[in-house]
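FAQ: What does the model actually see?

It sees only this:
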Amino acid sequence: MREAGRLATELGTRLALETSRNFEFNFSFVRTIPETMDVLDEVSEPGIGFCYDFYHLWDQENLLEYTERAGARTFGVQHNDWRMPRSSADRLLSGEGAMDIPAMLHALERGGFNG
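And it is asked to produce this:
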C-alpha cells in the first residue's frame, strides 16, 4: 500500500481505502472507521485516504464521532440508502431509507471533508 500511495502521488492522483461491513463474506481486513484509520496511519502515505461508504458504515457505534475524525482524510463518498427490513435488493437512493444521511454529511464536513 505504501508503494501504491507513493505511485499515486507521483502520478497526481489518489487512492481510497474502503471499509466493508462483511455480513456474510470475509473479504476485507477493515470493518470499522477506527480500523481503517489505523491502517492509514500505518501506511502513512498522503496518496492514500479513506473512501466513506454510507452502506458499510451507517450503523456503526459512535458513527458521527468517528466520521468527523475521518473527515479530513476522506477522499470520496459512496452514497445510497438502506432498505428496512433488509433484502437481497436493500440499497435505495439516498434519502429513501433508514440512514441519517444529513448527519453523516455534516460530520464529514465538520471534520474537514470538502469533496
